[in-house]
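Second opinion, please. Please look over this fold, written as tokens:

===
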Amino acid sequence: MKKESTSDLIKRLSGLYVSLIILLVFTAMFLYRGNYEFLTYTVTIGILIWILTTTDKIYHYPQISKWGFSLWLFLHFLGGVAKINGIRLYDSILIPIISDPINLLRYDQVMHALCYFVIVFFVYSIVKDHLKENSKKWTIALIIILMAEGVGALNEIIELFTVIVFRASGVGDYFNNAIDLITNLIGASIGALIILRNK
């Protein structure tokens, strides 16, 4: 097996390296501001970046997933620190479609859709070699969407942890939790459609 050169390694992992830089910059910012809710995310996302970096040589994650993750990560952390007219970006309504208690369309909902659009590309890279040659496209789509939704459910558990431990108030209520899962599903479904159209 040909040994990977340093330049090839940097090219392959460049998107994940950018994610690491974003993580370090915002971690310092959250430490300075005492934002413990988002510091919890920096720990879990740091573990995720380490997992993706160490497994990339095995699963060959596509660039859309690695750079998409970097984009989402920047916008995710920005949502926790930036404010528009005194309102935290994550709490901002981008387009007022439906009011309380659903509050559609919020920045938070767009971020969930973007995140799981990206996650489904990682998931597909992991499972594609284990699928049968004659697997139907709808079956593949169902598998990778449900796996992405599983990651989303784990994220909601982490959010619950921040509420219990740090008394975080920005996570939201039952409606927010349910809508998060729905927007995860929408993002993952769009990603799965793109994957299967190019399969």
Summary: Residues 91 and 170 are 8 Å apart (CA to CA). Residues 6-197 form one domain. The longest helix spans residues 137-166. The beta strands are 83-84, 87-88, 93-98, 104-106.
